[in-house]
Amino acid sequence: MKKYSGFNLIELIVTMSVALIIMALAVPGFRNTTDSNRMANQINQILRALNYSRSTAVTRGTPTTLCQVNTACTQCLASPTWENGWTVFSDINGDGFVDDVNADTNFNCTDLNLSTIDVFSQLGGGNSLSFAGNRVTYATTGYTMGTSGTFTLCDNRGAPYAKAVVVSSTGRPKKSTTDGNGNALTCP
Question: So where are the chain's domains?
Answer without folding.
Answer: 9-125+135-140
